[in-house]
C-alpha cells in the first residue's frame, strides 16, 4: 500500500512517516480488537496500539496499557489492593506472543503501592511479574513449543534467544511445581539414570498409582542424600504420622543399598518391592559378563571367535531377535559355552514372575539359585548372592497386586528418549526442567486464549 507512506504533518526532515493517520487508526482498532479478544486484564485497558516499521526489532507492534479509572493497584506479593505510592519514570516493555510472526510488546508504566504488610512494593500485573520482560503468555507460548522442538529450534522459529526459551520453560515448570498437589500418593518408583559419562547419576522418583503416573522428583547423585533430599521436599508441610512418605503403601526400587536404607527410614508403612525391570537388568549384566569372559577365553585358547557380534543376542528378549540373530543363537547353542548356559538360566528365571503365590515363587527362587550356583559361573554366582540377600524384598512383589510392573521401565525409556532429544543440555538444572516438563504432568497457568 504505497499511499500509506506519506509525510507526517510537522515532520521536517526528509524521513518517511511510519503510516498515514487513517491507516494507523484502522490498524489500531483492529489490533486492539484482537488484543481484547485474547486477553482479559480486568483492571487495565489498552491505549495506543501501533504497528512500528522501524526500531528494534525493525517490525513490531507496541500496545500501551493503562490502568482503568477507579481501579486500585495490587501488591505484587499478596495481591491485595493498596494505595498507589508513586509511578516509575520509565515504561517497561513486556514481550507478548507474536502476531503473524510480528513481535508484540506491551508498554506499561509500573506503579508502586504501599502495602500494610509488604511496605512500598511494585504493583502486581496479570500479564507478568515486575522482574521479567516476558509476559506469562509469551513464556507459556515458548514453553509449549519447547515440548515439540528443541530449545534452539524454538529460539530460531520465534526470533528469540536460547536463554529466553530456557527461562520461559523454567518459569512454567517452577509454576507447575509450586501449584501441583502431592497428596494421596500411594505408590512410588525409584530409579537412577546416568546423566553424563563417568559417575554422574541422577535419582528419579515416580508416582506409580493406577490412573496417575508421573515424575515426582529428580535429585542429583544416587547416594542416600539424593533420595533423602527428595523425601524432605515431599514431606514439606506435613508432620508426624501425617507425613506424606508415611502414607505411601508401595515403593518399587532397585537393590541399591543407599535407596533401600532411605526408603526404610521414610516410608515406614510401605512394602518395598524390588522392581522386575531392575532384577532383570542385573541378570542381563551377569550374562554379559559371562559372555566377555568366554570371548577372552576363546581368544586365549586360540579358538575360532564364534561369539563375535553376539552381544545383543544375549541382551535382547528372545522375541525381539532378528532372523539372523535367532539363527546365530541356535548355532551357538550347539557349542558348550558358559554364556549359553547363563543365557538359558536367564530365560528360565522369567518363570519366577508368573507365580501367583509368594510361597511357590520362593520355592522356585531357591531351586533356581541352587542350579545357578552349581553352574560355577562367577557372574551368575554373584547374582545369586544378591538375590539371596534380598529374598524377602523379592517376594514382596507377589503381595503388591496391582502395581504395574512395566511402569518404571516405561519411564526409564521415556527419560532416555527425552534426554537424547534435548541434546546440548549441559547443566543438571536444564535436564531437570526438560524432564519435569515432559513427564511431570504439571499444572499450567490458565489463559483466556490458547496461543500455541
Ligand atoms: Zn502485600
Poorly predicted spans:
1-17
Structure annotation, total helices: 15
Sheet with most strands: strand arrangement: 11-10-9-12-13
Bound molecules: zinc ion
Number of strands: 13
End-to-end separation in angstroms reads 30 Å
Oligomer: single chain
User: Strand share of the residues?
Assistant: 15-25%
Helix content: 40-55%
- List the helices and strands in order: HEEEEEEEEHHHEEEHEHEHHHHHHHHH
Q: Output the radius of gyration.
A: 31 Å
Task: Write a structural description.
The protein contains 15 helices and 13 strands. It is an alpha+beta fold. It has a five-stranded mixed beta sheet with strand order 11-10-9-12-13, with helices on both faces. Strands 1-2-6-5 form a four-stranded mixed beta sheet. It has a four-stranded antiparallel beta sheet with strand order 3-8-7-4, with no helix packed on it. A hairpin with a 2-residue loop joins strand 5 (92-99) and strand 6 (102-108). Helix 2 packs across helix 4, helix 7 (276-300) runs antiparallel to helix 10 (338-349) and helix 7 (276-300) runs antiparallel to helix 12 (378-389). It starts with 20 loop residues before the first helix and ends in a 13-residue tail after the last helix. Zinc ion (ZN) binds at residues 75, 77-78, 80, 115, 117-118.
Amino acid at each position: 500500500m504505497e499511499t500509506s507512506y506519506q509525510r507526517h504533518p510537522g515532520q521536517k526532515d526528509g524521513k518517511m512517516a511510519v503510516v498515514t493517520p487513517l491507516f494507523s487508526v484502522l490498524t489500531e482498532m483492529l489490533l486492539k480488537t484482537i488484543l481484547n479478544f485474547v486477553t482479559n486484564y480486568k483492571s487495565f485497558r489498552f491505549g495506543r496500539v501501533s504497528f512500528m516499521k522501524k526500531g528494534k526489532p525493525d517490525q513490531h507492534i507496541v500496545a500501551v496499557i493503562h490502568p482503568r479509572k477507579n481501579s486500585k493497584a495490587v501488591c505484587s506479593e499478596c495481591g491485595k489492593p493498596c494505595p498507589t505510592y508513586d509511578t516509575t519514570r520509565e515504561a517497561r516493555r513486556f514481550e507478548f506472543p507474536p502476531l503473524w510472526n510480528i513481535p508484540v510488546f506491551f508498554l506499561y508504566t509500573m506503579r508502586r503501592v504501599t502495602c500494610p504488610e509488604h511496605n512500598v512494593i511494585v504493583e502486581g500485573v496479570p500479564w507478568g511479574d515486575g522482574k521479567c520482560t516476558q509476559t506469562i503468555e509469551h513464556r507459556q507460548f515458548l514453553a509449549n513449543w519447547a515440548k515439540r522442538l528443541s530449545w534452539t529450534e524454538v529460539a530460531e522459529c520465534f526470533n528469540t534467544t536460547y536463554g529466553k526459551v530456557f527461562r520461559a520453560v523454567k518459569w512454567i515448570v517452577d509454576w507447575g511445581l509450586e501449584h501441583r498437589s502431592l497428596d494421596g500418593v500411594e505408590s512410588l518408583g525409584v530409579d537412577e539414570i546416568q546423566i553424563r559419562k563417568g559417575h554422574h547419576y541422577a535419582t528419579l522418583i515416580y508416582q506409580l498409582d493406577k490412573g496417575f503416573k508421573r515424575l515426582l522428583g529428580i535429585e542429583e547423585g544416587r547416594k542416600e542424600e539424593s533420595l533423602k533430599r527428595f523425601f524432605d521436599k515431599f514431606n514439606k508441610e506435613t508432620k508426624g504420622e501425617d507425613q506424606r512418605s508415611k502414607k505411601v503403601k508401595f515403593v518399587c526400587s532397585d537393590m541399591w543399598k543407599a535407596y533401600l536404607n532411605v526408603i526404610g527410614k521414610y516410608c515406614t508403612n510401605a512394602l518395598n518391592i524390588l522392581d522386575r525391570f531392575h532384577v532383570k537388568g542385573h541378570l542381563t549384566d551377569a550374562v554379559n559378563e559371562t559372555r566377555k569372559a568366554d570371548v577372552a577365553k576363546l581368544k586365549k585358547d586360540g579358538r575360532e571367535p564364534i561369539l563375535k557380534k553376539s552381544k545383543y543376542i544375549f541382551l535382547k528378549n528372545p522375541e525381539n531377535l532378528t532372523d539372523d540373530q535367532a539363527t546365530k543363537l541356535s548355532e551357538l547353542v550347539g557349542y558348550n559355552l558358559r554364556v549359553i548356559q547363563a543365557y538359558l538360566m536367564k530365560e528360565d528365571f522369567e518363570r519366577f514372575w508368573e507365580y501367583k503365590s509368594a510361597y511357590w515363587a520362593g520355592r522356585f527362587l531357591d531351586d533356581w539359585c541352587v542350579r545357578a550356583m552349581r553352574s560355577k559361573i562367577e557372574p551368575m554366582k554373584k547374582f545369586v548372592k544378591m538375590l539371596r540377600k534380598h529374598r524377602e524384598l523379592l517376594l514382596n512383589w507377589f503381595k503388591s497386586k496391582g502395581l504395574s510392573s512395566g511402569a518404571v521401565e516405561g519411564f526409564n525409556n521415556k527419560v532416555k528418549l527425552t534426554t537424547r532429544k534435548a541434546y546440548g543440555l549441559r547443566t543438571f538444572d536444564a535436564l531437570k526442567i526438560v524432564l519435569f516438563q515432559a513427564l511431570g504432568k504439571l499444572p499450567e497457568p490458565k489463559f483466556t486464549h490458547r496461543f500455541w
